[in-house]
Amino acid sequence: MHSNAQQLRSALAIALISLCGGAARAYDVNEQLSINLLLAGAGQCQEVTGGGDEQNGCRGAVPVRPEIFFNPTKQDQFFVKFGFAAGNGLNPVSPFALSPWAADLEADVRNINGRDRSYLLEAWYAHTFRFSDTNEVQVTGGIIDPAFYVNENAYANDEYTQFMNEAFVNSRNAFLPAYDVGGALVWKIDRLTLSGLGMNVGENDDGNNFNWFGVEADYNLQTPWGEGNYRVMYVGTSRAFLAPAAGLDPEPNPDLDPALDLDSAEEPDPTDKEHLSGLLLSFDQEFGKIVGAFLRLGWQREDALVDYQADYSGGFDFKGAGWGRENDNIGIGYAYLEGGSGELARTNAVEGYYRLAFNDTLALTADVQYMKDKYRTGDVIDGWVFSLRAVAEF
Length: 394
Prior knowledge:
- By secondary structure, this protein is mainly beta.
- It has a single domain, classed as Beta Barrel (Porin), CATH 2.40.160.
- Helix content is 5%, strand content 52%.
- A hairpin with a 3-residue loop joins strand 14 and strand 15 (291-300).
- 39% of the residues are buried.
C-alpha cells in the first residue's frame, strides 16, 4: 500500500508541476501550422470486495498528447498526433471488466495493435469538397481514430474532460479500434451527417489481423429546449475473433442458471473464428441552459466470444452557470451491461464527477465510480474507485 500511495503522489506531483509550471505553450507558427498539447495526470484508488485485498490501493498515470495541424489550403489538412505516458493507473490491476480510466496510458501507446509502432497515434490527410455552404464531403486517409468520427456524444465522449470509465466514453459494444491504417468519408448535408469508415487493424486480443468498418447517420436537431444530436451506427469486422467455448450458453439469461456447469465447458478452438457486428444508438439533448442528458444503447451478436451482448448507459450534465461557475460542470452516469457469450452475467457501473475549471487551460476533476461485475458462476466483484484528475490543454 505504501508503494502504491507513493506512486500516486509522484504521478500527481509530476502532472501538477508540469501543468502549473508553464513550460508548455500552444504555438501558432503561421495561419497554416499550429501545435497543440494536452497534458493530464490522474491518481486513482480502489476498494474492492471479492477481487482480493491485494488489489486495493492507489495508482497514477500521466499521459501527454502533442498534436500538429497543417492546413496548406482551406480544403486540405494534414494532422499528426503523438501519445506518451508514464504509468498505467489502475487499469492493469483492476479486477473489473471495465477500465477505470479509458485514456491512452503507457501500455496503450507502445507496440500499437501489434504493429511494432509506438507513440505515433494518428497521421492522416483530409480533403474537403465543398458544394455549398450546407453541403460538403470530407475524405480522410492514413492512420486514423474512428472515435473522432462516430459514436460521439456531447456529454459522454472525452476521458480527459468528462467521465473516466470506459462505459461512458464510447459504447462498449462499438468495439472501436484505434490508431491504425484506414479511411473515412464524411458527408454533411445541412443538419445531417453521414459517415463511413474502414480500417485494417494489426491484431486483436487473440493475435489476429482483422478488418473493421462502421457507418453512422447523425442528425443535429434544434428544439425549444436547446440543441440535440441523434445518431444510429452499425459496425462490423472480418472473421478474426475466437468463438465461444463449447458448453457455454450463447445467449445467457441475466438470472443465473445454477444448472450451468462452466467447469465442463471445452476451451475455445483457436481455429474457430467469427466476426463481430453491432447496432448502436447515441443521443444527447440540452434541456435549457443548465441541464443536458445523454443516452446510449448498443447490441452486438454473440457468434464470437464477447463480454457483453447489450450495453445501456445514460446520465445528466449540469453546467456550472447554475451556481455561478460558468465553466464548471457536474456529470452523473449509470450503465447496465448484459453479459454475452463469456462468463460475465452482467455489469453495473455508476460514475459521478465535478470538474473545476481554473481558466480556459487548466481544470481539476474529482471523480467517483462504483462497479459491480456478476459472473455466471455466482461470483461477484464490486467496489469503488476514487480519482483526482488534472488536465491542461494548450
